[in-house]
Amino acid sequence: MMELTFQTKINIFSINVNENHGYCLVKTLIKLQDFKEKRTLSSLKSDFEENNEEFELFWYSKGIEPLKENGSAVL
Predict the structure, then answer these.
(1) With contact defined as beta carbons under 8 Å apart, do 18 and 2 qualify?
(2) Greatest C-alpha distance within the chain
(3) What pLDDT, on the 0 to 100 scale, is given for residue 19?
(4) pLDDT value of residue 75
(5) Cα–Cα distance between 36 and 55 in angstroms, integer?
(6) Do 75 and 41 touch, CB atoms closer than 8 A?
(7) pTM higher than the cut 0.85
(8) How many whole angstroms separate alpha carbon 32 and alpha carbon 18?
(9) What is the pLDDT of residue 13?
(10) Any bridge partners for residue 12, and if so which?
(11) 74 alpha-carbon distance from chain centroid
(12) Residue 4's closest CA among 24, 30, 22?
C-alpha cells in the first residue's frame, strides 16, 4: 500500500492505494502540470492501463473517493 497526502486550499487529506496505482497516479499528476498538453480521460485511461489492470476499477475504488470529495479529481 502507498499513502499519498494532498493539500487543497481548505483541506489536507490522504488516500491509500496499492503501490502500482500510487506510482501511476503520481506520474499522471506530474503530466497534468503541463497545461500546454491537453489530456483527455481516454488518454489517462490508456496511460494507466499500460502498467495496471482496468482503469474503471481504480477510478471508482474506495481509495480514490477522497480525491473526488475534495474536488481534486474532477474531469
Answers:
(1) yes
(2) 34
(3) 92
(4) 53
(5) 24
(6) yes
(7) no
(8) 21
(9) 92
(10) 7
(11) 10
(12) 22
Taking only the tens place, the pLDDT of each residue in 10-66 is: 889 999 998 988 888 898 888 888 777 777 888 888 888 988 888 888 888 888 888
For residue 12 the three cell numbers come to 489536507
List b or e across 24-53, with b for residues whose CB sees 16 or more CB atoms inside 10 angstroms: bbeeeeeeeeeeeeeeeeeebeebbeeeee
Neighbouring C-alpha atoms within 13 Å toward the C-beta of 31: 14
Three cell numbers, residue 16: 491509500
What pLDDT score does 40 carry? Answer: 83
DSSP 10-75: S-EEEEEE-HHHHHHHHHHHHHHT-TTS---HHHHHHHHHTTSS-HHHHHTSGGGHHHHHTTSS--
